[in-house]
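Example record

Each entry pairs one chain with its bound ligand, iron/sulfur cluster.
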Amino acid sequence: MESSVGHNCGLFGIYNVPDASAKTFLGLFALQHRGQESAGIVTSDGKKVRSKKGMGLVTEVFQKADLEELPGHIAIGHVRYSTTGSSRVVNIQPLVVDYSQGLMAVAHNGNLVNARTLRDEYEAFGSIFQTSTDSEVIVHLMAYPEHAGRKDCLGHCLRLIKGAYSFLFMTRDSLIGARDPQGFRPLVLGRITTPGQLGSIGEGYVLASETCALDQVGARLVREVEPGEIVTINSEGVHSEYFVPPKESKPAHCIFEHVYFSRPDSMVFGDNVHAVRIRLGAQLAIEQPAAADVVFSVPDSGNSAALGFARQSGIPLDYGFIRNHYVGRSFIKPNQLERETVVDMKINPVRSVIEGKRVVVVEDSLVRGTTFRKQAKILRQAGAREVHLRISCPPIRHGCFYGIDFPDPANLAVNAYKDVEGVRDFLGIDSLGYLSVEGLKKAVSKPGDAYCTACWTGKYPVAPTDHMDKFGMEKC
Ligand code: SF4
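C-alpha cells for the complex follow.
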C-alpha cells in the first residue's frame, strides 16, 4: 500500500486482570499498524477512572511510570490515525465523559455516515461537542434525557447511527463492545487466564480489533462480536444482546482488511489474513500470468500474496527489495516530498536478484501510483530487464465512507490515467495486471455478498446521508 492512504484505528479492552493498563499497552502495541498518530488508555479500579493519552506511537506515549499511574482491573485503549491532518490532542481516544448515568470511556473504529446530521440535530437540542470526531456523537445520543432513561439506551442509540463502527465502552465496573449491523470493522472477544481481581469470575476477558492483540497478551480467541451485537462484560460474566436481530443485519465486512489493513497473523472475519493473501496471490497468478524469472513483493504487506503467486506460477520467489524497518510507514509523512524521500529510505533493491532478470513484483494495492513509479525506477537502475507489476486487488476507483481515507477519486491511479494501460504507461513498466472482484471474493470463505467492495465497485452497502466532507468531521 502506498503513501497517502489513511488507515483505520485499533481497539483493545480488557476486564478482570490486575495489570489492565500494562496488558492494554501490549495489546495496543500489537495493533500499532492500525494507527500511529496517537494512543490512549483509560482504566478503572471499580471506583476511580484514570486516563493518559498522547500524540505518537504507543511506545512514545507510554513509559513504565505512566502505566503504574493507571491502576485498575478494567481498561480500554485506542490507537488512532487521523484522516484530516488536524492532529488535535482533544480528539485522542478513548473519550471520557461524565454524564447523567456516570463516567464512561468510549473508543471507536470506523466512520459514521450520518454523524454530521446528528451533530447538527443535537447541537440544536443544546449538546455541546468537545471534539471534531464523529465518534463523540454516540456520547451525546446516550446522554440525551429521552434516551438516557431507557433500559435499552445503548442499543437504541446504536440504531440511530449509521455507517461503520466497532465500539468499546468502559464504565467504572464494566467493559462493553458493540459492532455495527454490517460488521464493517473487525472486533473479537478473547479470554485470558491471568488471575482476576474479582475472585467470583476467576477469568479475564479481552475485546480487540484483531486477534494478534489477543496473542500478545496471552489471551485465546472465543469468537467475533457479531454484527449488530452488544457484548457486556461485568461481575456477572459475559452477556450478549442484539440491537439488530441477526436475520436483519446484512454483513458487509471490509475486504480491504484482508488485502492490506490487518496483520497477516490475525484471524479476521473468520479467516486467517495470511492464508487469504496467499489465495489472492494464487488467483492473481491464474488471472494475470507473467513470463518472468523471479517474483518478489513490495515488503511487507505484499509478502503473502507474492508467496501465493510464486507457488501458483512456479516462478521462484526471492527477496528483491529489502525494507528498512526503522523508517516509519510512509503515509505518516504529511507532504509528497517527504513521502517520496521516505520511499528511498525505506526500500532498497537486491541487485543480485534483479540484474538481467524479468521480474514480477506483487503489491497488495495501487492508489496514486506515485510510490511504485519510483520503485520501478529503482528496479531499472538495479538492472531489471523487464518489470511486471501484479496487484492482488482490483483497481481502486471510488472513495470509502467507512473509515478509510483514500485520496480524492480523481487522483486514484486508474481514474487519473484513464485505464489500466494508462497506469502502466505512467508507471513506466512492461506490464500491469490487477485481480478481478470475483477473484477477490474467491479468496475469502464467506459468501461474496458478505463483504464490502465499494472502493472497487462503487456499490455502497450503507448510503451516506451526510455530505461526506472528510474535513468536516474526523473519522476513525
Ligand atoms: S469501501 Fe473499500 S476500504 Fe471502505 S469499507 Fe468498503 S472495502 Fe473497505
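The pocket of iron/sulfur cluster is lined by residues 184, 254-256, 400, 402, 404, 452-455 (CB under 6 Å).
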